[in-house]
């Protein structure tokens, strides 16, 4: 959530930067915030004046009674009663203005960092770096992962449909072991990089959804249990970041570095076509998330370190990859800057997104009231960051497709100790 101070002090700059995200209602909503704040502040001043009058009149009533001026005392009492009634109305008006202002702020996206490129969609993202080599297949045509999964009995998509529905596959045998191996590999790599491992709940309350920005923006994409008022998490970012909701840290305690494995649940409403086949887009999948809470001065160094960490994972899995700096039109509601990692799918002949690493600057922290005390005693908003390290479905797809040969699938060397096998055939 944008801070009121930034809007009041830099109205035109805020509107300009929101334009990079193509937020059409930017000027209108920013002006609504400013106008509502004026109502709130004007009402606050009027309320302060009324409360001062109540205090002054109340002090005179006792004196009038002592002097035997009962009639005047009764008039003063009546005036105080009327002023108190007026103060209640003013408090209500002020509270309504505060609620309205917060509701408007919750609907305004984060400001993109100045280094975010202009653009409307994925085609306008900037390729920052490429690594690895695309595999070469000789003497056979590579199969897509859904055919490999069936051939080697690794994943049963049809059984998942029977039990739950499309987008809920069942992993079997070496397919299940590969899932477990990747989770443990990613967690160990994160722990070795200094991240504290967290095992979070897979459901969160409404306050947690609002804290990290899934609500109200992505309400329709989350699974909801109305009987309990709880949401299934779309990513471990939500519960892990909410650990710091309403918390004031010491500057010396930053950065906080956490990692978590979780199942992730996404309705993916409106997703159709060839791009959702197999593991390309699921309603339930596994992911290891890395999260940092940091100071504004250090958060972009943290972002660079997180990008380097994810790049190291992809390299160890021996996959061709590229890193994209997302343009304004392709960024999430809450992000200030995002770098996507994509791996090349040899059989599908296209790039598959496997990670997003983002700095939210103070946007989430303002919603969460996640703050820190500086060494000179000031209380400031933290910066929050997170990244997928990594999401499993498309990583599995790329491993199966890129490491296949005419008779089976080779396991990347870094994964062999975790799998307990070096080949699927």
Describe the structure.
This protein is of the alpha+beta class and 425 residues long. The protein is built from 13 helices and 18 strands. Strands 1-11-12-13-16-10-9-4 form an 8-stranded mixed beta sheet. It has a 3-stranded antiparallel beta sheet with strand order 5-7-6. A hairpin with a 5-residue loop joins β14 and β15. α2 runs antiparallel to α3, α3 runs antiparallel to α4 and α5 packs across α12. The longest helix has 41 residues. It is elongated.
Number of helices: 13
Helix content: 40-55%
Average of the residue pLDDT scores: 95
* Low-confidence sequence ranges: none
The strand order across the widest sheet is 1-11-12-13-16-10-9-4
* Assembly form of the protein: single chain
The largest pleated sheet is described as: 8 strands, mixed
DSSP strand content: 15-25%
Distance between the termini: 51 Å
Number of strands: 18
Radius of gyration: 28 Å
Shape: elongated
Q: Give the class from helix and strand content and strand pairing.
A: alpha+beta
